[in-house]
Amino acid sequence: MKTFKKGGVHPPEKKTTNNCPVVEMPVPDELRIMLSQCIGVPAKPIVKPGDSVACGQMIAEAGGFVSAPVHSPVNGTVKKIEPTRTPQGIWQDSIVIETDKENPVSFPTPRSDGEVNDLSPDDIISIVGDCGIVGLGGATFPTRVKLSVPKGKTAEFVLINGAECEPCLTCDDALMRRDADKIVKGTLLIMKATGAKAGMIGIEENKPEAIKSMSDAAGKYSNLDVVTLKKKYPQGGEKQLIYAITGRTVPAGSLPIETGCIVDNVATAYAVYDAVYNRRPLTERILTVTGPEVPNPGNFLVKNGTSLLEIMKFAGGVPEDTGKIIAGGPMMGRAVSSLESSATKGLSGLVVLPESTSLRKPEGPCIRCGRCVSVCPMGLEPYLLMLQADVKRWDDMSQSGVLNCLECGCCTYSCPANRPLLDMIKLGKQELRKIK
Amino acid sequence: MIIGISILVLGVIGVIAAIILFIAAKRFYVYEDPKIGEIEELLPGANCGGCGFSGCHAFAVECASAKSMDGLVCTGVNSEGMKKIADIVGLTPVANQRKVAIIKCSASCENRDPRNHYDGVRSCAIEASLYQGESDCIYGCLGCGDCVAACPFGAMQLNEGEELPHVDLDKCTGCGKCVEACPRNLCELSPIYSDRPIVWVACANRDRGPVAMKECGVACIGCTKCRKVCPNEAPDIKSFIAHIDQEKCISCGECIKACPRHTIKSTADPISAD
Fold first, then answer.
1. Residue ranges of the domains in chain B?
2. How far does B84 lie from chain A, in Å, by closest CA?
C-alpha cells in the first residue's frame, strides 16, 4: 500500500461520524458572510445595505489576483455591512443578509452535457473563478489560480485528495460516499482545464465504503484511477500526497506543478462540478461536528455565513463540560474563541473537546530523544528550530529550513515532554516573513 | 633530582613561550584609539541599540571618529554622561530630549474579564498570532510580558494580579526595545519634561464606542470630552481613540477629570528630564 516516505504519525482516528449521512441544515434567518474567505486579498463588497440579493448572486468581487469572489447562499436582503468576529475573535468585515423566509433558495437551470462538452479549458477556469471556488481542504487557495498552469510548465496528473488524514473529520468521506459520480465529473473538468492526461484519487484505507463508491464511479473512465493509501497523518499534505501517489518529490520552496501535478481536495472537485454543471457558485459545504459529548454529531451541509452557534445548536447544543471547540481537525485546526462568528468556505469541522482532554500538559525539558525528528514529514529538526526560536536566531532558523515546515503538528504531538515545538516554529516563520 | 629536571624543563619552555608571545604581541599589535575604551567605560553596556548602532562598542567607535556629535546620542546615559563623552572626543554635546516608554493599555483583570483561558506558550507574540487574546478587546495588553523580557535595563515588570506591565521611569532610558517587542504596539516613547508630568491615554481600542464600552471597563470610546475641556487642543481623536500630543499638552489635568472612562493617566510627579 502506498504512503509517503519520511515521518508521519497515526493518532487515534476517533472518526465516530463515519457512518453518518450528509444532513442538510435548515437555512438560518440571518447569515453573516465574511469577506475574507480565502488566502490572499479579501473580497470587495458590491452590494449596499437594503439591496435585495438572489441566491447565487455575487455580493463581493475578487479584491486582487489571489482572491475569490463571495456569493449569496440565499434569497434575501442585505441588512448591513459590518465587522464580525472570526473564529479566532478578530474583527473582519462581513455582509449580513436576512433570508427571505418564504423563498429562501432558488437554483438556476443546469448546463446540459452537450453545453459542458463545448466549454474550452479557459471557459472552465473562468467559471471556477467567477463561482468563487477555493481549495476546500483547509488552505482556501483560490482554485482559479491553481488551475492556471504557468507558461513553460505542463500538468501531467491531477491528484484528488480524499485522504482525510485528520482524526475526527469525516466530511470528505461522507461526500465521497454520497456523490462519487459528481466528484469524478469534477475531476474530469479539472483535467480538461489543466490539460492533464490522467487523474488519480487518493483515499486512505480506513474509508472502505468511499473507496468502493469512488472506484465504481471512476471505473467508467480509463484515465482515472483510485489509489488506496496507508493510513498515516499528514497524508493529505500536498507534497506528501504527491510522493505517496506518484513517487515524485517536490523540490524545497517550489510548487507542486514542478513535478507536473495539480492537487485538489475532493470537496473542491465537487464544487467545480457544481459550478460548471449546475451554474451554482460555492455557497455551502459539508462540515463535521463531532466530539465525545456532542448529542447529535454528524456531517452537515451548511450555508456559508451560518453562525457557529446555530451549527452547534443543530448538533444538539454545546455540551456542558466543554474545554475547547476546534475549528478544523484536531491536528491542524485552531481553537474557537467566539461562537458569534460564522462558517466560511474553509471550515471543515467543529471538534468539541471536553475540559479534561483539551488542556495542554505541563512542559518538560528536551531530552534529545529525537522523536520529533523521526516524525517530521519534511525531514526537519523541530527540537533545534525551537531552541533557535527561543533565542530569536531567525536567520539560523531559515538556514535550518523552517520555511519548508507545513505546520502539521506531528512534532508537538509526539513530544514526550509536551514541548510547544510547533508554536515556536510558527513564531519563527512569522518573524522571517516580517523581515522579508 | 627528577624534580630539578622537571622544573628546569618547564622553566625553559616558559621562557621560550614568553619570547614567542612577546614577538607575537609586537608583530600583530592593532592600534585602537584609547578614546574608544574610555567612551565604552561610560556607556551602560546593555547593547540596546537605542542609539541606532549595533551595540555600545559600535557607538563608541563612531563617537571616537566623529566630526560632530550631531545624531550621536546614547539613550542610556544622562546629559552629564553625554557631556563627558563629548569632552573625551573634544566636541560639544547636542541637547537630547529624554524619552520614556508609556503603556497604552490600563485594563487590569478587574476591568476586562477574561472570556477564555489561554494555556499556550507564555509569549505575547505567539498569543497575538493565534487569536484575540483572553478578553474581548483585540487591541489590549496580553500580559505575557514580552516587553519585560525585552527590556535591557530592568525597567519593566508585570504587576502581580494585574497582568499589566509597569514602567520604572527612573530606570527607563527610552531605547525602544519594548516598542519592537510588543505585538500590539502598546508601548510608545513619549518625551518628558522636568516641569510637568506626562499625561497620556492608556488605551489603544479602535472599536466604535458602544463596542469598546462592552469590551473593557476603561476603554477609550472616542467621546471627545477630553478635547473639549483641553485649553490647548492637545487630544486628537482618530478611529474612536484619543491621543494626546505631548508638545501641546500642558499637564493641567483637566482631561483626566473629564474622562468618563478613567482612561487618561498621568505620571505622579514630574520626572527628571535629564
1. 37-89, 99-266
2. 35
